């Protein structure tokens, strides 16, 4: 997914706020669902961040076009791990590894159904 850095994403010096890289990655994950015509909120639950490991390599700036690439690293009974890398042109500027847990609408961790696992495999 490609996005442009807007003024609202930056500080007064035109540098992207560190927390916005998480937003960019979230948009890319959500967009993977939307491109398939479905919502990231599934009929029996949704995904929440359980653990995040992030590395900042270089700063993005106002007007930059960024590309977020997402790859499935592993899948367990009730969670999966993604690696997301943000590029400016061919230069890696940010990397995120995120563990996402599947929970029901009461906030309880649920096992991924066979259909949910197949969906995740097809998206990432």
Q: Give the DSSP E fraction (strand runs of 2 or more residues).
A: 35-45%
| Class inferred from helices and paired strands | alpha+beta
For the largest beta sheet, what order do the strands appear in spatially?
A: 1-3-4-5-2
The span between the termini is 12 Å
Helix content: 10-25%
- Nearest-angstrom radius of gyration? 15 Å
Number of helices: 2
Which whole number gives the mean pLDDT?
Answer: 96
Largest sheet: 5 strands, antiparallel
Shape: elongated
Would you spell out the secondary-structure blueprint of this structure?
Elements: E1 2-4, H1 20-34, E2 46-56, E3 65-75, E4 79-88, E5 91-103, H2 114-123
Antiparallel strand pairs: 1-3, 2-5, 3-4, 4-5
Protein traits:
124 residues, single chain, alpha+beta, 2 helices, five-stranded antiparallel beta sheet
What's this, in brief?
By secondary structure, the chain is α+β, with helices and mostly antiparallel strands. It has helices at 20-34, 114-123; strands at 2-4, 46-56, 65-75, 79-88, 91-103. The relative contact order is 0.22.
Verbal overview:
With 124 residues, the chain is an alpha+beta fold. It has helices at 20-34, 114-123, and strands at residues 2-4, 46-56, 65-75, 79-88, 91-103. The protein has a five-stranded antiparallel beta sheet with strand order 1-3-4-5-2. Strand 4 (79-88) and strand 5 form a beta hairpin. The protein is elongated. The mean pLDDT is 96.
